[in-house]
Amino acid sequence: MLRRKRLANNKNIIILEGIHKWRRWTLKRLLLLFGAGCLGALVNSLAVWWVGDLGLARALGVAVAPALTKAWLYPRIVWGGIWGWLFFLPLLNSRPLVKGALLSLGPTLVQLLVIFPYQANKGVLGLELGTLTPVLVLIYNSIWGVVTALAIRYSR
To answer: pLDDT per residue over 38-67, tens digit each?
Structure first.
């Protein structure tokens, strides 16, 4: 909190009170958001692997069936935690499912417009993997967003 104090020479100074409490709260909040994002990414990754393993993605004409390895899983979990910091935005806090679905559009757009075309060389929206690839990416990332939002909600 800010408090104004008048000195003997009639000059005002502003005293910062509680700055340590604010810093501690912010650090705890950032750690919580990162952890919740990691949990969301783990559930998302297991869903992607499971759908691929069952052959559902192939049945939909989408060539996404990753092997469940540490090398595939680790970066997804770390990036899920980093994307979890989006939940710091004071947006729809009373509606966590809507907030999770809405914020999942960030990683979805990056996947479809940056990762697939430029890193994986699978074309814009990943259409070289199948015409329903954007739909599956949207569903998978919605799982991340909703699980992250619920983890944050129930951790308080």
So the answer is: 999 999 999 999 999 999 999 999 999 999
Inter-residue contact 8 to 127 (CB < 8 Å): no
For the chain, give percent helix, strand, coil, nearest 5: 70, 5, 20
The residues near 14 (Cβ < 8 Å, ≥ 6 apart) are: 2, 3, 4, 5
Domain ranges in the chain are 30-155
Sequence-separated (6 or more) residues with CB below 8 Å from residue 16 = 1, 2
> pTM score, two decimals?
0.82
Roughly how many angstroms between the first and final C-alpha of the chain, as a whole number?
23
Which is it for the CA torsion 127, 131, 132, 134, positive or negative? positive
